[in-house]
Amino acid sequence: MDRNPSPIPEDLIDQDVLRADIIGSTVFSKQWVLSCLVNLLKGVEKEPSKSKDDKDEDNDNNSDGIEMDKELEEELCKLWDMSANEEVVSFLHEWKSAEMLISVVAKTNSPRTTEICIGILANMACTEQMRKVFTEDDQLRSLLIALLEGRDPPTLVELSRLLHACIADQATCKPWLTDIKKNSTSLDALTFILLSSTNSDLVFNVSCLLDVLLDSDQDILVSLSNSNFVQAVVEASKEVKNKKEECYDVLLHCLQVLSTEQEGVKVLVECCSQVFPILYEYLETICEDDVVTIVGRERALSSVVSILQVLLVNSDMGDDEQVSTLFRFLLSILKTLISSTQRLRRFSSEIAKKFVKTTTSDSTRTTQEKSSSSNEEAETTTNTASIQKSGNNHHGDKEEECDVDNKQTNMLLSLLTDFFVEVNQGEKTSLLRQLKSCSPKLLKTLSSHLKNSHPDLAAKLQHPGKT
Q1: DSSP 8-state assignment for residue 170
Q2: How would you label 401-411 residue by residue, b for 16+ Cβ within 10 Å and e otherwise?
Q3: 79, 363, 421, 425: which is deepest, by most CB within 10 A?
Q4: Residue 22 — φ and ψ, nearest 5°?
């Protein structure tokens, strides 16, 4: 009679053999991982071969390629999850799995297989060791950069994540930057993704990749200082506006980086009619309620202010009413920032006072306890030191939080101050007229803010009727 076999008795299991099969301190089996990789190779070998013409035809028709074996897909997805573990990554590297995965990517006609392989490599790239290994492999770098011209969104999501990990690391970025500049179509491919993709995860990853590229290399910054790229950023920002706010922040920063370069300024001015509306709408969203919420939006607002300064000074905005409303938005933000800064200062001062009071109280209590008995003196001193150390750490945490908040707030406040100074000192009297059309209360806030650093400008704003 057939039946399932009974489990092997525990006393017959060789624990040394069992431990030898486990990867590091994990519960993952070495044998299972290697078996999974072998099955992957066998699966690719079973795929029907295709000629170059067939592959080109598939690309032109945006073909989905061949289906992946479901059982193999399930196994590989488990391995993909496991590859987030550093010990598993070390084991994969020991068995040269990266080279094998790249060879599979080069051979397979299955988009899902390609996606999973690139996803595993992207997880591996989260470790410093593997970023160095990948960077030293010329063939791997070339293949990955060439894959940017693919049309499979899930694969591009993982690919852009992998490239970002390697390029954001200053220790490994140079060879990647060099290869991207050599491959004349790679930047065009990234621009096309921003321009056309509706996949918010892909747009976000590519935006982060482009952001680090713009910040890392002057030649790439110049190359992307063109109207096609600006249009792509504008279209991508419209796509993700209500889906992924953090992506919107990154896209705004990409435009802000362009404004730091002469060619970038020119193209932003040329595309003013496309760029200005997304900046205006962003400020309108923040300022539409009576309460202006800035926390968490400091980076995006800093980008907006920097870009607006370039546009207002170098282009003809045309619509006086819209520019006046824009000034009202920015003055409202300035007022909120000043209030926030004052609250942070008061909060820091109160924490400092409480800390001094607590320390003084502890010291007094310690002195009293010391006089009680010599046997308790050591214990009392130790306990007091622990209390003081605990209070010190608590104060330090709060102080650090305040420092971070202050840094972000002060940076944005400084940018806004420079913005209004530039507007007032510029040759365009129309801008000053539109600024003075704002409410006297908001103008008074700006005047008070500038009275020490720019007394002449502060005096001008105290008399709105004068130009």
Answers
A1: T
A2: eeeebbebbee
A3: 79
A4: -90, 140
